[in-house]
Amino acid sequence: MVRCLARVWARASRMYDRALPRGGRALSRGERENGGTMESRSVGKVTDDEVLRLAREVADRLLESAGDAAGKADLADGAPGIALALRYAAEVFDDSRYFTAGRIHLRRTAEASATAPLQAPGLYLGTAGVVWAVTEYARMEPRYLPTLATMTDRLARQTLAITLHTAAGSVASHDYDVIGGAAGWLAALLKAADVLGGRATDAVGQATDRLVDYLVELTRDDGGPLRWFCAPSHFPSIPGPDGEPTPLPGYVKNFPDGVYNLGFAHGPPGILAALSRPDIAEAPGSTADPVAGSAAGTTDSESGSADPAAARPHRVRQGVRALARTLDALRIDGLDYPAWANLLLPHPDSRRPDTGAAQVPARSAWCYGPPGVAASLLSASSACGDPEPTDLAVATLLGLERTPAEQQRVNSPTLCHGLAGLVTVYGRAAAQTGVPELFHMHERFLSRMCSFADEDHPYLFPDYDPWGKQEHSAGLLNGAAGVLLALLGAVSEAAAGWDELLFLTPRLPRADAPRADAPGGAGAETRQDRGMGET
């Protein structure tokens, strides 16, 4: 089990590493051709027909071959992610070939997991990701419901078997994060339970309640180190020479006293997003016992109830508000736009986040940086009915235009740390807020992403590592499947719902009209649902 988790975290650690600041990297071809920064790339506005043509081309290439991804059982870069992308391609293009191919990838997932069973429950690296993909197919074909029920019960039992620590210094980022931790597990369980209805087992309800209480506990601030502080003993690790987990050398060197992670993928924005789901922030849970040490059993001051289930929604909203305020307080001072670092050092005396230490803004991406934080704040605002997180989120997203190119570090068209992620973040933000300038920024990111299409690339859209080296991946987070989903979501309101995977919360109905007080003025153009069935 330890060796398996070490292998899983070797892959998760590469995701951490890709998002951290780098120096002296080579430039990608697009950067070399455009004066050294991707931000200087000048492209015209892409049309809907062009977006659909590119999406069709990517889907067709994934039909032909998914390369090494076809043999992997994880959502991040394996067959489940490709199955998910093809399922939405089938819906947008009304083409059963894509749905059939997606089903084949689900079967390959089952075969791969039979050969090498998924020992970890993670959303992007384990069982929860398979549950997510099967849930999407079960929504369209009831034949998948028995399989979904079995897999969801397995996921629930996996999470129930894991000890959940809540004391500061005993918590690792991968215990609670989106990629491999509790935030991702919770979102997958809730999504599956919604589709399963009465088929969901008691274990599913017990697991979801336990995870909600655990994540709420992590939002508590008792005046000492924050609960999600990661001590060196819990750093992400890779297999050492003896095969046992060894902390990443870069973390040990740069953060000898521990670290606070601020990214959506591995930090508290993911907790915020998971707790902002309407099925927990607005509805009571079951009567399962809360995680030991939580405040779930205390009398709720507003509801007056000692029942954990009855008190849970109020406590969730309290936790969401508290964590949103914490993120606001951890912004970098001295900038004329809101921004956050990748990681914060603990203060040498208090071990609380040291906001007075020198900080460098994180790259502009979903995984780390202002866009991902803003996405979580939008979800929090909806969950609590508070306007302040939305105002901060909008200011953050608009501030990207004033962020220097060297700080943005966007050198890829892909999802995790590239333009596909920005297209999706800004698409949801524009639809939710009605702010015209967010819509225009979404359009510009979409055009820039499309400009990376390369007919010579096996999947049309390459990925680039932090040094500008071109990589070939069919997968979801760093490959063609993620770009395909971003393309489809940009031109179809139905397909836009895929972004629940990225933000952990379902997409809200579109804002009725642009905000009159927003930059760009009232009455600015807003993207409507194309209803595109075919090109």
TrEMBL record:
<feature type="compositionally biased region" description="Basic and acidic residues">
    <location>
        <begin position="526"/>
        <end position="535"/>
    </location>
</feature>
<dbReference type="GO" id="GO:0031179">
    <property type="term" value="P:peptide modification"/>
</dbReference>
<dbReference type="Pfam" id="PF05147">
    <property type="entry name" value="LANC_like"/>
</dbReference>
<dbReference type="InterPro" id="IPR007822">
    <property type="entry name" value="LANC-like"/>
</dbReference>
<keyword id="KW-0479">Metal-binding</keyword>
<feature type="region of interest" description="Disordered">
    <location>
        <begin position="512"/>
        <end position="535"/>
    </location>
</feature>
<feature type="binding site">
    <location>
        <position position="367"/>
    </location>
    <ligand>
        <name>Zn(2+)</name>
    </ligand>
</feature>
<feature type="binding site">
    <location>
        <position position="417"/>
    </location>
    <ligand>
        <name>Zn(2+)</name>
    </ligand>
</feature>
<protein>
    <recommendedName>
        <fullName>Lanthionine synthetase</fullName>
    </recommendedName>
</protein>
<keyword id="KW-0862">Zinc</keyword>
<feature type="binding site">
    <location>
        <position position="416"/>
    </location>
    <ligand>
        <name>Zn(2+)</name>
    </ligand>
</feature>
<feature type="region of interest" description="Disordered">
    <location>
        <begin position="283"/>
        <end position="315"/>
    </location>
</feature>
<dbReference type="GO" id="GO:0046872">
    <property type="term" value="F:metal ion binding"/>
</dbReference>
<dbReference type="InterPro" id="IPR033889">
    <property type="entry name" value="LanC"/>
</dbReference>
